[in-house]
Design goal:
The complex is a heterodimer of chains A (about 325) and B (about 375). With about 325 residues, chain A is mainly alpha-helical. Chain A is about 70% helix and about 0% strand. In chain A, the strands form 2 sheets. A two-stranded antiparallel ribbon of chain A has the order 1-4. In chain A, strands 2-3 form a two-stranded antiparallel sheet. In chain A, helix 2 packs parallel to helix 13 and helix 3 packs antiparallel against helix 11. Chain A is globular. Chain B starts with a helix and ends in a 6-residue tail after the last helix. Chain B is elongated and about 60 Å long. Chain B contains 13 helices and 14 strands. In chain B, the strands form 3 sheets. In chain B, strands 3-2-4-5-6-13 form a 6-stranded parallel beta sheet, with helices on both faces. Chain B has a 6-stranded mixed beta sheet with strand order 8-7-9-11-12-14, sandwiched between helices. In chain B, strands 1-10 form a two-stranded parallel ribbon. Chain B has about 375 residues and is α/β, with parallel strands linked by helices. Classes of the chains: A mainly alpha (about 325), B alpha/beta (about 375). Chains A and B meet through helix 1, helix 3, strand 3, helix 8 and helix 13 of A and helix 1, strand 8, helix 8, helix 9 and helix 10 of B.
Chain lengths: ~325, ~375
Amino acid sequence: MTESVTPSTASKSGDAERRADMLARLGRLLTQADRPYALYVAFAVLLVVFSLASPWFLSLDNFLNIGRQTALVSIIAIGMTFVIIARQIDLSVGSTLALSGMVAALAMTYVANNWLVGAIAGLGTGALVGLINGFLTMRLAIPSFLVTLGSLSAARGLALMLTNTKPVIIANDAYIAIFGESSFAGIPVPIAWTLAAAIVGILLLHFSIYGRQIYAAGGNPTAALYSGIHIKRVTTLAFVLTGMLAGLAGLVLSARSHAARPDVVQGMELDVIASVILGGCSLFGGRGFILGTLLGSLIIGTLNNGLVLLGVSSSLQLVIKGAIIVAAVAFTRR
Amino acid sequence: MTSMPGSKAFLTALMVTAATLGLSMPYADAQVPDTCVKGVDLATAPTSIIGQGPNGEKAASVDTLKLTDEEAAKVKAGKFKVGISMQTVNLDWSQLQVQGITDTLGKYGVEVIGTASAEYQVDKQIADIENTIQRHPDGIISIPVDGTATAATYKKVSQAGIKLVFMDNVPTGLKHPQEYASMISADSQGNGWIAAQILASCMPQGGTIGLVNFGVDYFSTNERTKGVNDWMAKNRPDIKIKQVDFTDPSKVSQVAGDFLTGNPDVKGLFAVWDQPALDTLTSMRAQGVNIPVTTVDLGLESSIEIAKGGPLKATGSQRPYDQGVAEAMAMMKALIGQTPPAWVGVQSLPVVQSNVLESYKTVFKKDPPAQLLDACNAAKPACN
């Protein structure tokens, strides 16, 4: 796929050309992968199979369940898509989520009991961890696998240290409503935040200059460098975005459980990375799309949900899930 | 960032789709009988130890560990030193244990030379114990991280002439009294019994309950679930029992939520410890389900939920501080040459809305924090 690095000249051209460019972008939005249609087919097959197998699967309530259950992974996976397209990885997202939730809850307890204070503290903490990840990776040229393996441990440690491992109870009703338990236009807020993050992600990745720079930085760094793209800055920004989204996920989780806990979502980074790769993103950079990532997350979430509805034993669930994920990746790739 | 004109149309389309998706959400309230919690005489909670030890032995009571004045003087004259080896020190449970041990030993002039934390790793615990042996204490109090892999190392402790007291579990193959002095544990079956009794009081005749169970073979959680099943079979055979297992504690919210979707006949839940119970409450709130839940263990979050009078009705709590006291007493008996019982059980504590403040004090040995008091005050007079 070379279209991702094509510089845009649309703004200077005529209407027809602009329309053609628009269509091409929409095409990329839906299909930025080798065999993206296979991904949609895989999801559809899963839906049909579970609908036939369980009388409880095919209902609005259950789909809302799946949406809520996948919200945390989906939100972070949107950021991870940028990082992986830029040929990097971020293993620290689960720890960043925990740390952000803790800082948000502590800020509301000790600074001001206002949801906005919590939100800014949480998102800021996430962004800061992302900035540190990006800085160490790009400025000091340490592989991001190692940098974020370090911050995976350090951020978790900090989260545990803040309260000597104790949870922080959240008593702010506005915060709980906004990030956890109310509905926005009929959609439970965890899902609404996922949609909001997805829209921002789609606009950034598929409809902005920054998105084209990210594809270029990951697809062919040398060419990107010679065409004047500031790879270090662009990639650092991807880490910051991922950190902020991990922070947002931290707000959602702490609001849903009425408390921030330092030991939550251990190992979640693997679910996030699996969603992104299943969604058609290349681990070697340069390729991937937001809707694919969301589909990847939904496929894994639907599997988790359907297997419990069918009453499959918890150990067997892990085996089936692993096998289906590998099969799906094999099926959607050449 | 530049945004294209088409993006606006796309955004609108997404919002319309989203709005049509969220049409309605039915909220289900369970038919909870009036006897719920109120119908339970807490005095009928287990007054002795229900479960049996890992080797089928009967539990001795904590009272058997009392020291006479003469014995106490002997302990004080001994100037003994004791080391502690924990699986972690990051839990309220372990901090209270260590506090109970340290306070009690301190009263009798026994010095605690250090507390090692194995961070749940077998190799770390083996190193911890070997290092402690090198410091030549008179006794070691420890909870084994693993039932088999640490056995050989614990045998070295008794070979070195050091007295050994276990909390909660005895590693495979160790013999009483040659290789260890005593094992002190909570009554896990009794805790399950309490949770079952109170949950049953909230269930109509012929109702169905669900057990949110840990799918990993682990002595104390197995015992709790067994306690629930046994109590139901004996006292409420009309109640049907379904079960869902989780292996990853971070996924309980999803697993329990989906279990409720797939089993709408379930009108009451038991979760095997308090954190899974809280995660279950999270998905119940999201799904608009309100059915009674009981569990085992008490923490600040779970005590607040009980105080509020929400779906979490009760817990059968351990008493980690009191267990620590018993471990210290057993150790001192052993240090002056006596043979304490192979297994001593610490009685369970039923915690409901009406006794949650007092129970918090009993378990944590300190006054309830402001958050718990606030929650309780808001639910007066039911909460005490």
